[in-house]
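Lesson 9: reading folded outputs for more than one chain in a single document. The general rule is that every protein is listed as its sequence immediately followed by its structure tokens, and records are never interleaved. Here is the first one.
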Amino acid sequence: MSIQTRPAPDDVNNNEKAPRDNPQPNGDSWAHEAERQAGKEEEEERGHEQQAKKAAESKHDGPAGGFDATAIPERPPGYTLKFIIHRATNLPMADINTLSSDPYVHAQLYSDAPTRHKEDPPIRFRTPTIRRNTEPVWDEEWVVANVPASGFQLKLRVYDEDPADKDDRLGNVHIYVDRVTDDWPGLKEQSYEMKARMASKRAYIIRMAAVCLRTTKHIRGNLFVSIENLGRTEHDGQNGRVYTVGPCRWIRHYDPMLGRMMGMKEADEDGDEPKQAKEDTPKQQSSQSHSLPKGSKDEKKVKKYNFQANQMQLEGPVPLQLYHRYVEFKPFVKGMFTSSGIRGFILSKALHHQHNRVYSFDSQTVWGHY
């Protein structure tokens, strides 16, 4: 006798409704997933657009540094002028030991010609130093292009060069020209009395003592300057930018202290360039000294530490693509170059001090022309 059993209706329904191991998603879940992905893509696109907009705004306001493509406002070409600094007379005596001076002239040209930025300095010129002379003769020429027809102001300051201390100012001369035209005759070896404003009190005290002792007759000196009008500046694509045409010259500066710090020695007599020296140990120095024969040239020749820095003045104008300001790799760089804020002002002073240290002028400075 066999007995057969059948599942209850509830069991059958439960088996049919049991979930499968790998259920397939329906159309509604696919739609939700697509909407979610589209929303993410839209948010990413908005973020990229905002970043690009911020970068464009910062670039429009001003570059962070490096190459600056800021255009100069266009204006008609100006005039090419030649400034000649001839000589000076009756200069004060800044050096007590020699009862003389080491004078040079520092010139700055100001005009209403626009610049890219307010931090851009006026164009400058410096004459060589005449040693131990209160009646110096320079006869130095300075050619400047695109001087505007609205006129200019030429500031001339006579200094006494003092490498060990701050240079003493001996006097000032300011030349004002209201307007420059095609038929402007210029100036022919015009004499200007030097003003003593901001000048060295020590130098003028020595000068007054010399006048009292009747070794000299005048307290204040005179500076002789000429200005030649060379005509209109040819169209050069500079939009009226003022620049130096000449002279083309080079200046070589030396500094033994920096040479010692950098390990740089002077050039050989054969003309070889100085190379970075390596510090020898006492044993190496003693072995080298014993290996050299007595009385030889190599034994007598002693190389001195000396750092060499060169400046070059080439014929202008400088191409617009070479205009660079600074590279703002750190937040303090902009303040250092623009002297903004207390920290920027202090860093700017330190930067100028180091620059003057490297490119210092003294009796070893060599001048030359191309």
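And here is the second record, again sequence then tokens.
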Amino acid sequence: MISILKLSFCQNTEEATTVDLILVGRTGEGKSRTGNSILDSQSFEVSNHTYSETANVCWGSRDYNGKELVVLDTPGLKDTRRTVEEGSKMIHKMLKEQMIISPKGYSAFLYIIKYPLRVTEDNMRDIKMFEQILNTDFARSHGILVMTGGDSFDADKPDGQLFEDWCRREEGNFQKLRRKFRNRVILFDNMTQDETKKCEQLNRLLSSVETLEQSNGRYTDNQFESGSFKDVSDVTFRLLLTTLQQPITVDDLPDLSSKCAQHKRVISKSAADKLETIRVQINKTFRESRKSTNSQENSASTFSEDINMINDLASNLQYGNTHEAAITGGKLLLGPQV
């Protein structure tokens, strides 16, 4: 779902930049409402059900203060229709696809929780799961904790109490979670109609995102694909080359891109360069397949041509490997990381 909006009343003439945000969290915590608040539109469906209204990754964008804000809303983690394992696999698959669609990476992950707080061990397990999927301590290096229900918080807090002071006094799992995110906690009121308040909370969020991005950079597919290589071997490399020369569907592309990224780290420099060329072509083909600007017939024709190119590149790489192995005594090109 795409939403292109006009600048809000608090725009200025800053040089345009892109801020790419991914919303993650458990079902019912206000994730989609937060996305709507950031975009100042009803871009994402919301509900109070125990299952996620977001079945796929949805995204919207908006111009704000000279920046293009791009927001991705992911399915909720606690969905009564899915097991924990199914939810984890689904999130992994969707994030893998988003890494391909946005090669420049993402500015920050926003983990959404709701006031009144119900931070449990499940939330801590969520963070662990994302660390495993993203191959990084994502909360520390690329995460911001966003607490929704700002309207309820304002109604409950003692007069004059600052949100930051309240955060420091909270104990238990919330304190553990806050420390995970290096005290980056932003309060959001998704119900307010006060334009000044809307701008203030969004500006606080963007300031935190900017500081985070300046310190740690964007999260990119290089980090996503930097996990374990225990399944990488001569045999799996040969199988990958064989697969790349066969008919390929759109659904195959994300997994093939990941396998190329994994193998190119442990093969010779010359082979790795060729494999990276294949991966770039795979990613380009996947992005183009997600566009709907051309007719279906033209899209099918272009896709077929792209797959043929991938097949040819893989065939050339396999021939090069066979030739080099022949003159080096049969040793394949696997070796030290490059």
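What the second record shows: The first strand starts at residue 4 and ends at 5.
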